[in-house]
Amino acid sequence: MNHSQSLPEPAKDALAHSEKLIARIREEIAANDGAITFRRYMEMALYEPALGYYVAGTHKIGAQGDFVTAPEISPLFSQCIAQQCQDVIQTLQQDNETNACILELGAGSGKMAADILLTLEKQNALPAHYYILDLSPDLKQRQKETLENKAPHLIQLVTWLTQLPEKFEGVIIGNEVLDAMPVDVFTFLKDKVFEHHVIWHDNKLIEQLQPASDALTANVKALNIPLEATPYTSEINPNLNGWFKALANCLDKGVILLADYGYPQKEYYLAERNKGTLICHYQHLVNEAPLLYSGLQDITANVDFTSVAEAADSVGFDVSGFTSQASFLSNSGLEKYFMQTLDLTPDDQYKLAQQVRTLSLPSEMGERFKFIALTKDYKKLLLGFKENDQRYRL
Ligand SMILES: C[S@@+](CC[C@H](N)C(=O)[O-])C[C@H]1O[C@@H](n2cnc3c(N)ncnc32)[C@H](O)[C@@H]1O
Fold it and tell me: What is the crossing angle of helices 111-122 and 137-150, to 10°?
């Protein structure tokens, strides 16, 4: 991914789309005494019905889009997740007479769903249902197309949901879902906390600092950031508690497996990381201008995995594993799956070897991306965390 200050100009129709979203954002600003929080802006930029980045029709994920995720890089990633799902589902089925299933949150292009189902089919371990819950109607359509192309005979196992099921047993998985959640952005100036707002000024959207609410100030102060100098800007995701509460109501028994980029809290809020981690992706260029091309680019923040663990723990989940992507994949059979491809042409083998490097090398995705497992009423050791479990870092 390249860093850039100058981004390619969007096409005319894309700019017109962005203008429509900006008009909606301006209405919201006007209805809120001239300012909305950055979090509300991010929510609208990504998820405003019919207009937000994830909801409307740009390509987003993959080579023709704005960014690439692990399931797009290699089927090996999803094969390893399938291995972990299989182990959990079989354990649950041995323990009681249930039909343990898989629920994928934020399924993107549908590639991971297709690769997981194809892997489980080969192992004769298909679940009764593979559910998908995504906030994006546009991606839902793309997921259907991917499954129709890659695994047409398995699509009857897939059910798209519009909300979490009332009761669920099995594995809930989500790759890069947490980083796509709207965040509050704050700045410490001396010892005072300010919250970033978005206003309309001089014919454009700009950020404005306002004294933070009592709740945000308390949450930020609880982070105990070792401030060496201010201004210090970063972000915090206040939605985690509510999100895990909903997941706790839904999951009766089983495992939630989340993969994303981020850090344990102590490493996230370092004194030197004083500009935060919020970035945008536009046509494979990284930039730090979230108010630019609203609705046409992805906005994302790294994940504070300590907050994730705390929010999950507070609603009754056990935090049952935390490790790097490299370790999770290696524990879950990456080498085995790679060896199974030795009958491929040398060219294809070379491509797969490159993919393994991208997924695993510390300088690529291996260390920056993490896996966390949250369990309910499930005691068996999780395959993906059997070595190098790093929960002590949380
Ligand atoms: C960065 S994309 C990742 C897509 C896919 N998992 C992948 O790895 O390619 C984030 C996805 O999460 C979805 N999403 C964000 N918040 C969500 C939520 N609360 N529940 C379900 N999906 C969500 C978005 O619509 C989008 O599909």
Answer: 40
159 vs 117: CA distance, rounded Å = 13
- The residue whose CA has the least distance to atom 7 of ligand 1 is 108
Beta carbons within 8 Å of 18's beta carbon, 6+ residues apart: 10, 293, 294, 295, 296
* Residues 6-33 as b or e (16 or more Cβ within 10 Å = b): ebeebeeebeebbeebbebbeeebeeee
Residue 134 alpha carbon to ligand 1 centre in Å: 6
Distance in Å, CA 38 to ligand 1 centroid: 20
The residue count for the chain: 394
> Measuring from each residue's beta carbon to the nearest atom of ligand 1, which residues come in under 6 Å?
54, 61, 69, 71-72, 105-108, 133-136, 139, 175-177, 180-181
The residue whose C-alpha atom lies closest to atom 12 belonging to ligand 1 is 106
Largest CA distance in the chain: 65
Ligand 1: atom nearest CA of 54 is: 25
**Domain annotation for the chain: domains and CATH numbers:** 2-63+184-240+269-300 (3.40.50.12710)
Digit-by-digit pLDDT tens for the chain (394 residues) are 555 557 889 999 999 999 999 999 999 999 999 999 999 999 999 999 999 999 987 778 888 888 899 999 999 999 999 999 999 999 999 877 778 999 999 999 999 999 999 999 999 999 999 999 998 888 999 999 999 999 999 999 999 999 999 999 999 999 999 999 999 999 999 999 999 999 999 999 999 999 999 999 999 999 999 999 999 999 999 999 999 999 999 999 999 999 999 999 999 999 999 999 999 999 999 999 999 999 999 999 999 999 999 999 999 999 999 999 999 999 999 999 888 877 888 898 899 999 999 999 999 999 999 999 999 999 999 999 999 999 999 9
Between CA 170 and CA 152 the distance in angstroms is 23
Give the 3-state secondary structure of residue 125.
coil
Ligand 1 pocket: which of 103, 177, 244, 258 to mutate (most atoms <8 Å of CB)? 177
